Amino acid sequence: MGRSFANLHIKSKNFEKTVEALRALSEGHSKVLGKNKAQEAKVVMYVNKSNEDWISVLHDYFVWGTVKRIGKTLSQLIEGPVMTAGYMNEEIFELSIFEDGDIQAERIFCEQWTRDEYELKEERLNDDYLREALDIRNEDLDDFIRITIPEQAVDKLSELVRMSLWSDSEWIPHEEALRNRFGKYEL
Asked: Which pLDDT tens digit goes with each residue over 81-107?
């Protein structure tokens, strides 16, 4: 079993508005975060203004398979694209972008045998939207979407959007660099 992570990123220049949307998510949609109404504990999220365009969010319930539902719900609460990244066992990298509660674009990076074994299929291929939301050039997008090795796809996307996607809330206690980059928010 290899390394795995899941995180989400909000395209926004307004950090405070983003934190308020995360608070609305934790208060009004706690079920999507794995909480039931009987659980009164605050939701802990780690938030970082990764660059001038993107705000990154980590949470312990973000895993491959749940982070997309959370991204979809959050995109109903905030203006602009919400990008989710799920990386599983070094075999799959799933990139999805939501806006207004709908998936706008998705790419799954993996070898063909993995795609067949897990019966993986993108929900919505929309490379024009993907290019626009990520703000990358056509030729860079062409090179990016041809990648089949998940680790290379994560590295290339990190380079293209100028922020590291290699992060997960489970890594924070063990990686000082992540602790220094992400602020802890109890929502």
From this structure: 999 999 999 999 999 999 999 999 999
CA gap 117, 102 in Å, rounded: 27
**Strands 54-58 vs 44-49: parallel, antiparallel or unpaired:** antiparallel
**Residue 168 burial (CB count, 10 A):** 22
pLDDT at 54 over 90: yes
Q: Are 114 and 92 in contact (CB under 8 A)?
A: yes
Which residue reads 């802990």 in tokens? 44
Give the DSSP per-residue string, the chain.
----EEEEEEE-S-HHHHHHHHHHHHHH-GGGGT--TT--SPPEEEEEE-SSSEEEEE-TT--TTTHHHHHHHHHTTSSS-EEEEEEETTTEEEEEEEETTEEEEEEEE--HHHHHHHT---S---HHHHHHHHT--HHHHHHHHT---HHHHHHHHHHHHTS-----GGGGGG-HHHHHHPEEEE-
Angle formed by the axes of helices 67-75 and 15-28, to 10°?
Answer: 110
Task: Report how far residue 83's alpha carbon sits from residue 79's, in angstroms, rounded to the nearest whole number.
Answer: 13
Could you tell me the sign of the dihedral formed by the alpha carbons of 12, 181, 51, 147, in that order? negative
Q: How confident is the model at residue 40 (pLDDT cuts 50, 70, 90)?
A: low
